[in-house]
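The authors assume throughout that readers already know how a fold can be written as discrete tokens. For illustration, here is how one protein appears when written out as sequence plus structure tokens.
>
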Amino acid sequence: MSAPTSPTTHEGEQSAEHPSGTSTTSTVAASAPGAATAVVPTAASTAGRTATAPTHRSGRWIDHWDPEDPTFWRDGGRKVATRNLWISVFAEFLGFAVWALWSIVVPQLPAAGFTFTVDQQFWLIAVPSLVGATLRIPYTFAVPLFGGRNWTVVSALLLLLPTAALAVAVQDPGTPFGVMLAVAALAGFGGGNFASSMANISFFYPEREKGKALGLNAAGGNLGTAVVQLAVPLVIVAGAGVALERAGLMMIPFILLAAFLAWRFMDNLSTAKADPKSFAAATRNKHTWIISFLYIGTFGSFIGYAGAFPMLLKGQFPEVTLSIAFLGALVGSVTRPLGGVIADRVGGTRVTIASYGVMALGAFGAIQALQSHSFGLFFASFLVLFVATGIGNGSTYRMIPAVFQASAVPGGALDGPTAVDAAALDEARARARKAAAGCIGIAGAIGAFGGFLIPRGFAASTSLAGSLVPALWTFIGMYAVMAVVAWAVYLRKGSALASAGI
């Protein structure tokens, strides 16, 4: 291997690493579960090129990055990627924790002297998801614009706003609801972090290892919800009284640590380029909107139930300690990878439809528990719901690359009877990969709106009927509709993609 060359390659320039006659293209990984988008520089050809280890210039920028080259990956690429991954996991973990803070703080507000109505409390739980979902797409494009390391530092420091504001606002029971709602909205910054974190890590890994890396990144982030719901009830009651401000203050040292680690040890990749065309292609494809609709039922249900569960426990079973609410988010997080594994074996559509059926059973069990006031049945039913949402998350994302690849050629199946020119097929598959990447970003954002819709559904049900039961019946109906849509489009005999086995 030759000695590392000076990293001077920039867009529009030639170098020893990219001589005339070779090209480097950006492709987008559509196979990684949970990725908001994944725009990845890969070598279109490595012929005539000498692999070099990654080297830095000022600002921790790396100009030559080629993880698809085995020599480059072995001689330093893997080490750099792994270092960036683990810091990203920590930063994203904190993002999810901040995003979920209000889900566990709101049930404690009455004990601290606040007199908000039930509807207002559900607004405080729902609005962080509304803001976080809206931020996901712009956060995705922030990484190519500013650099992954730079944006991780900025996005981590932005988490100081919602945590510090919460610590101040909850100390005065006279704080107006409008002010509290604005403070809760700031927690949406944590929801946006997921998209930029996933996009950034996708740049570092080769296609053959991307799924595992992004799966670890997503799982680490999702666990933030469970951990904050476990820790906050314990921290705020340590000592005398209820000190809600500790919920925000306890996060600040960790946020500062994440920002420091990102600044000191993470890297920017100058080869990372955004691909707005993938989003444009996705918006023109009907499957983007079908998948997004289905994802509201899986990921949206996870975020929505995780946010509302502590409030539901407090309202329906006030004698139960809130510290057990974290178990719902925990099982939903750890079962997500299982959904992808099962989907690989039997097909993502079948697993997704089955998850809707199990979610409907869980919601029905919760209805029976409310009518009999059985805490055991209520808690068990929600754990079933969370397991199903986790499995559905993994299976729905596994569907995306399969759907777009299968729809790229005549007949739906990749190896179907229709004769297709090899060059045309390669071009169609390349377009499908780009559209699938755009779908991942769009579906991730739209699915997150479920975190707003479910708490607001419980609020409307409580206000209009004095019970959670109508909301649960509505959710059951939606799961039935989503299951029928998935079957009709991807499994029904005679449908365009039935033969693809999606």
